[in-house]
């Protein structure tokens, strides 16, 4: 299906579930971006689950978002249980505006929901010659080191900055060996996941995505990944006034209430301490890219570069939507 037609379908569906034209467009842009960068687990496959949460009234289709400016640099947002894309879009734009004005934009968001890819927001800042850190927490998926019960989410850490080239440096990584969306997508498509990424509910290694979802995901770098997931839970959960410590609700299975996810955006100017940042970052990246390469490697990429290549390539193609998913979305529009 053509990209423009997919976007129209997404907007039409969200509007059917009482989102405004503006909010539907914000959501569609984020979902389309995920498809184009190859993060299909965060793309249109999630549309039915968002609509189900709206129908169950655990996402507020008509939120009354409150913005409190603590200073010219610091903003606090209560998203009123809006769909996560809307709260995050407002948050990153506030952070960018504050940073352009004072050098620093510091924005905390509470009462939000799943917002898709962190890199999508950080990249917006980097393209405006700003640095950005983005933090958000998620439902329990990782056990704290030494425990056998999940508590922390996959809790991504995201950093972006100007690269001196058209493509920003964007590092966006979850604290698990594989993001939960990929496991859910594998389960939906009837595919296996590699061994070494998850354990079943009995603590045994599994390649069955359904068993992995009922068990636990393994963190990157063992106790280090668990510690970083804890850090994100503190920054985006405890610090912002949002759910934390395993209280974030699963968006697919738990309709007992809103997720109350927290987001924290920290954005600042590239030239706060040096005036020749662009020259210095070009030197830094060039040094890495020109290192001797191991066998089979033709090019050393900096984070964000390969996603940009996929985006450029996929923008020329159509978006592939399975017949089952398309049937599910069409059914939503008839409900």
Structural account:
This protein is an alpha+beta fold and 335 residues long. It has helices at residues 3-16, 21-36, 47-55, 84-102, 118-126, 180-189, 209-214, 223-238, 277-289, 305-314, 323-334, and strands at 66-69, 74-78, 104-112, 130-136, 157-161, 169-173, 198-199, 216-217, 261-269. It has a seven-stranded mixed beta sheet, sandwiched between helices. A two-stranded antiparallel sheet has the order 7-8. Strand 1 (66-69) and strand 2 form a beta hairpin. The radius of gyration is 20 Å and the shape is globular. The mean pLDDT is 96.
What key attributes describe this structure?
335 residues, alpha+beta, 7-stranded mixed beta sheet, globular
The outline comes out as globular
> Order of SSEs, N→C?
HHHEEHEHEEEHEHEHEHHH
**Order of strands side by side in the largest beta sheet?**
1-2-3-9-4-5-6
Instruction: Give the terminus-to-terminus CA distance.
Output: 23 Å
Secondary structure class reads alpha+beta
What is the number of helices?
Answer: 11
Helix fraction bin: 40-55%
Low-confidence stretches: none
Largest sheet: 7 strands, mixed
| Average pLDDT rating | 96
Percent strand: 5-15%
Rg, nearest Å:
20 Å
The beta-strand count equals 9
Write the layout of secondary structure elements.
Blueprint: H1 3-16, H2 21-36, H3 47-55, E1 66-69, E2 74-78, H4 84-102, E3 104-112, H5 118-126, E4 130-136, E5 157-161, E6 169-173, H6 180-189, E7 198-199, H7 209-214, E8 216-217, H8 223-238, E9 261-269, H9 277-289, H10 305-314, H11 323-334
Parallel strand pairs: 2-3
Antiparallel strand pairs: 1-2, 3-9, 4-5, 4-9, 5-6, 7-8
